[in-house]
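Good morning C.,

I know you're traveling, so I'll keep this short. The sequence:
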Amino acid sequence: MCRSIKTLRPPVVEHATETEVREAALQYVRKISGYRVPSRTNAAVFEAAVAAVAESTRQLLDGLSHRPPSTAGPSKTAQAAGGRSGR
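The tokens, ready to paste straight into the viewer:
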């Protein structure tokens, strides 16, 4: 189930929407609680958990720093792989 949670940070996603953040939080809470849809008895605590995870996720995404894409040419790994193929 959690395999459907996608990366929400740049550069993969320019800016994650609140819907994307909430969907990821919902998937996470579903996975750890074992409920796809909680009973009425557990609905309030389930929704509170989704809201808390979504808020923490937004704080994480807003606080992460990221590097801009490299414009320096091929990576050392690519250069090393190219050098090995010529042997």
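Safe travels,
E.
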